Amino acid sequence: MSFVxxxxxxxxxxxLRGAIGGAAVALALPPLEAMFGEAHAxxxxxxxxxxxxxxxxxxPWHAGHGADQGANSPGGDVWTPPTxxxxxxxxxxxxxxxxxxxxxxxxxxxxxxxxxxxNGQSDGHMRGFMVAMTGDRIRPEGFDHPSHTLTCLRxxxxxxxxxxxxxxxxxxxxxxxxxxxxxxxxxHDYGHWNAISFTGPDSPVAAVHSPAQLYSMxxxxxxDLMALTRRVTLIDAxxxxxxxxxxxxxxxxxxRLEAHLDHLREVQxxxxxxxxxxxxxxxxxxxxxxxxxxxxxxxxxxxxxxxxGLTRVFSFMLSSPATTHVFNNLGxxxxxxxxxxxxxxxxxxxxxxxxxxxxxxxLDHLAAAVDPMGVSxxxxxxxxxxxxxxxxxxxxxxxxxxVLAGGCGGTLxxxxxxxxxxxxxxxxxxxxxxxxxxxxxxxxxxxxxTTEHLTGILA
Length: 459
Known about the structure:
Blueprint: E1 15-20, E2 23-28, E3 49-54, H1 67-71, E4 85-86, E5 103-109, H2 124-134, H3 157-162, H4 165-168, E6 178-181, E7 197-198, E8 204-205, H5 211-219, H6 225-246, H7 251-272, H8 291-307, E9 313-317, H9 336-341, H10 345-368, H11 377-380, E10 381-386, E11 402-405, E12 416-424, H12 426-435
Parallel strand pairs: 3-9, 3-10, 5-12, 6-9
Antiparallel strand pairs: 1-2, 4-12, 5-11, 7-8, 10-11
Signal peptide: 1-41
Organism: Nannocystis radixulma
InterPro entries: DUF1552, TAT_signal
């Protein structure tokens, strides 16, 4: 006869206990299965920087995207540089970025498998975005093309980097990442139409669009600083009790307890790093409805934050996927998404050039932010510029636009044009991760896997 020894239920009133200065303290726990019984069981300035710059609706179309695109492209290819290799000749649309010697990769496309039946999962608005940002396909479960509902299978590249142990290591920043936005126009107000950064499936990270909000978040002293200080002191006091409690818990409860403690540690980490790490604080900002003017403001604040180590990861969503932003300052009468589908090539060219001018303003600010050793933020950075597909007229994911700006501390070659027609887009991810010092034998998923990086760009 065998006997099963059952652990007694953990009291729902269980707390973690400790002492501060001889006085007893207690900290509550999250709900754990053990409480309900078996029935309910179940120095930053020397380190690299990674950033994403995202613009909507790709680039003007040409024959490289398909026969229909070629027949309806009055101006031909104004994106792909005419020369390859080092010190390439910039194309008309890359000319605004030329001063910063950006590198570009052309000809690349998603290689992830499209589940069958397709049900719209090959739509470039969604597939191109997902592969460019995560290296994986759309999550098939829950995908609905008529309502344009979708999510990712894994974190976007910025969030993958921000949480990777080889990136921050023992040199933490106050914010693991900053997610910023400029245009507030939306194709839909949910899911990936509203955000480009995801921590995982169904978990978008909302972008900060207000310069005043960003300034306050970065440079104001938290109003609840004393309350947070007391809470962190409590965390320190009860950690020993938490270690003892682990032995009384099952596997699922251990995970829940660890997640709870991780949250508390993150509060503690943020507080420890919240006290005046910036010697020079910029003036309080204004605001503007113009995309370049607002980019100027947001980029200035971001550069200051990066230069003094408040974060080392950011995403900068100039315009959201399939943007409906009306560029009336350029004489464009309708939202960009509609303009693309109407085949108004000249309008799309002028809009794309305007978005590249905004990208250049971000790079200007990163280049101008210099540390005491004369090293700029852009010297330390790898900034990945990308859109959701190659072009918006037919949603083609051929010829995805890819820009890599910055030197990443010498690990990236500047001013290089890599071209591989039909090449794997995930080579960009491998290049970025290796440049940042993250061990990456391969990257990409569900048919997009590759061990190769962009030769000529990775130093």
